[in-house]
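Sat 14:20. Reprocessing the chain from the morning session after the first attempt stalled halfway. Input below, unchanged.
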Amino acid sequence: MPELQVPIFLDEHGDVSAFQSVPNAERYIEAIDVNNHECIGYDPQGHLLQLRMKKNAVSITSKE
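Finished this time. Tokens:
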């Protein structure tokens, strides 16, 4: 799987945050927000990212 480009943008109901690493973005997101689909992730080119739970931790990967 190719490495994601940074920054990673997370949009929580219009509140957008930028992260300079995938691990920082993964630590920021709360599990309940991922489960309730309350956060959307994008890469610098605007491609949608997949946010999901993996072994009690949030995982961010490319949707493509």
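Helices lie at 22-28, 31-35.
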